[in-house]
Specification:
The chain is α+β, with helices and mostly antiparallel strands and 220 residues long. 26% of the residues lie in helices and 31% in strands. The strands form three sheets. Strands 1, 2, 8, 10, 11 and 12 form a six-stranded mixed beta sheet that branches. A four-stranded antiparallel beta sheet has the order 3-4-5-6, covered by helices on one side. Keywords: Signal.
């Protein structure tokens, strides 16, 4: 079969275009696609400022009279620390395994604070050192469990991230639940931060909550 010179040039051009097209498609399959414009993805549903919700009345721990038996001051101290750990005020009750105790070196007592139906046990060892109200640095106590509350978690997350990003979102958080002390829980929140990555891309930053004796905290 005879082909003219013009026909051969046209056929070569078509072949070149087809090869270029195939090469581009293969490049995409081999990882040549552009990186996503946003790093990460959100978790949970959008939340509003906790301040926009009517604050419930604070049920603070009632402080004993100065001349009350020392064990009542012990109960007050441990109930106050439990509320601080939870990050939200609540009704509490406290019982101890002894009717009285003196803050002398080596003395021990175990008290259980009930916070919204959850029991937190505090084994207390007195060190004999001086402390505020007879306690303060004069004792050592570590709770049996950590606490996570919806109110405490949202207040912490909103307060720390409302200026760092927009579109704050959170998992469905329990009103109150036990969590391991000092360990990451299963509950998370995230926020959108524009151009926060080192290469200028937008990011969804996710933080996980955990419980400490100083209150609820969250970290990436």
């Amino acid at each position: 079969m005879h082909y003219s010179r013009g026909s051969l040039i046209a056929a070569a051009a078509v072949s070149c275009l087809l090869l270029t097209s195939c090469s581009s498609a293969d490049d995409g399959k081999n990882g040549g696609a552009a990186e996503p414009s946003v790093i990460g993805s959100p978790v949970g549903k959008p939340i509003e400022s906790p301040e926009a919700t009517p604050q419930r009345k604070s049920n603070s721990v009632p402080e004993p009279d100065p001349d009350a038996p020392f064990i009542e001051h012990v109960k007050y101290e441990l109930a106050t620390r439990t509320v601080k750990m939870a990050g939200a005020p609540a009704k509490t009750s406290t019982r101890c395994d002894k009717d009285s105790v003196r803050p002398v070196t080596g003395a021990r007592i175990t008290c259980t604070v009930t916070y919204e139906g959850i029991e937190v046990t505090w084994p207390v060892k007195f060190t004999g050192k001086p402390g505020f109200g007879g306690m303060g640095n004069g004792y050592e106590a570590q709770p049996s469990t950590g606490l996570l509350t919806r109110e405490g978690a949202l207040n912490y997350f909103w307060g720390n991230n409302r200026e760092a990003g927009t579109d704050l979102r959170c998992d469905t958080l329990p009103r109150v639940t036990k969590v391991p002390l000092g360990q990451k829980s299963q509950f998370q929140c995230s926020y959108f931060a524009a151009k926060a990555s080192t290469d200028g891309r937008d990011m969804w930053i996710t933080q996980t909550f955990y419980s400490t004796t100083d209150g609820i905290r969250a970290q990436v």
